């Protein structure tokens, strides 16, 4: 299993200034090794969205002797030394960020950048200056990286890279990536980060140049951030730049049937943004109210997958040309359905999570299912949930068990929650997320010690279908792309369809039921990679609001039922199938239809026999040697005592199919111990003497 570290390294009591991380020191590698890390995320070489020349200096720049004395190194040197310790640094490619910073420069020498000090008149440094060769004298010229220049989709030479690549409002104004801007810093004019658009071929060519420098710097891994750009521009109302307009026009022309709204409109030079403006629509109106909104979001969903594939293919192509293969990680944020089409393109999935809470085992089971056997590494989200509150408690010397739980929960569910190392706290909090070093080492070393009894595969007998096509619009139309009336008032889409997937997996988790999330893809985005044989390992399959399934997926379910499987259906099923087809599933003797989500748990098998209650969660890991391990987390936190209430004498039974003769207990802060085990009717039972935050029982 991967053990990630969120290696921003932002300074304590300082804002987290994107995109370039603080310089690295050799002593950091000692910390990372003691923390048991195997991979670093958001870990370096982020300055490409300032300029390629800035990135070059991050990677290969000279380090003054004064800083060498204290172990400072450039990023390529740090990458080499970390790799020598068995730690893979995944460099970060910010796909949505295009920066301009306030600066003070005299005779080409930078006297201040970002934080001004009155040493010279204020100017700016970033992508514009890079493309116009007006940046610092140390910067290599634009032509060094692009000898032929860059030509946009209109056939024009690019003269202002910053203005070229930005996403735009209906009226053509630039959109900004506000979530990474720190405003009002120093005495400067303020930093500005444009929201770049991956639909723009110029930006994709620029990102490929960023990737080349990363690979030349020796990175073992590349992490692509903001992988849903420019779909994420819906937060501000949507992108209407020239390349989104052109792409949407092509999408409409390829439709088998022209939308009714365009019956009298020629598509030859159709401009969606201008068409909306002519009808009176303006920025500040909820895009869900725009005509063709459903088609527009569909176009963007297809586009983000296609452009992402282009970049990942280039990573592998260029790395191979250098004889230096690299792994690819994608930040798939909250593991939303539109990321499913990108999973095949990466080696590691990274999730920031929409919300970080103290109890969300169902989220990690979902993410492991989406990952389809690939490692899932999570990091906390500073804008959603408990991170800031937890940091304050840790700084007061409290909440150590709560912190342990945030890490152990993911491990128990077959994922990895990265340890923070100066990780991001957003733009409003003047601090970064550090935990006491001894605590980080303690937790990381325990994860390392249980690696052989940890897996992202299970023996669970219940599968919950993640119906990508059914849940796609519900996700896009949700408040995920909404910012509290800041940009527009939220309005429910008139054609919204209900979904109960998240409610279902939370219900199962709180009912002590274990399950796997099984993806039914949107076949317009990627083919279904399951078959009935793969489903037959589950005795029960749950279908939550799977109203949009393909014919092949429907046939697979029929075959599963005919082979003896049980189906539990909640809500609509197969409403897009030909007339009469759905009854082959709904009327099948092995199908049960429920009206309430709360009915589902009782219809699924009890793989774990125990009185766990809602303040616990468990998962059964299938190990490489054919044995299994029960992973159990205890959420019963006593606020006054500031610790987890121990559960003593907890008897747990696990349904097994292999012979079990021994049981070994792993728990934080203790050596592994043998436990008596009894097997009756296929249930291996043990009594755990004390369960504090986390317990693993290896049945072999």
Explain what you see.
- Strand 27 and strand 28 form a beta hairpin.
- The two termini are 20 Å apart.
- Helix 2 (52-60) packs parallel to helix 8 (201-216), helix 8 runs parallel beside helix 11 (293-321) and helix 9 (242-254) packs across helix 11.
- The chain is built from 20 helices and 31 strands.
- The mean pLDDT is 96.
- The chain is globular.
- A 9-stranded parallel beta sheet has the order 14-13-12-11-10-5-3-1-15. It has a 5-stranded parallel beta sheet with strand order 17-16-18-19-20, sandwiched between helices. A 5-stranded antiparallel beta sheet has the order 22-23-31-27-28, covered by helices on one side.
- Among the domains are: 462-603, Rossmann fold, CATH 3.40.50; 614-699, Golgi alpha-mannosidase II (Immunoglobulin-like, Sandwich), CATH 2.60.40.
- The chain is an alpha/beta fold.
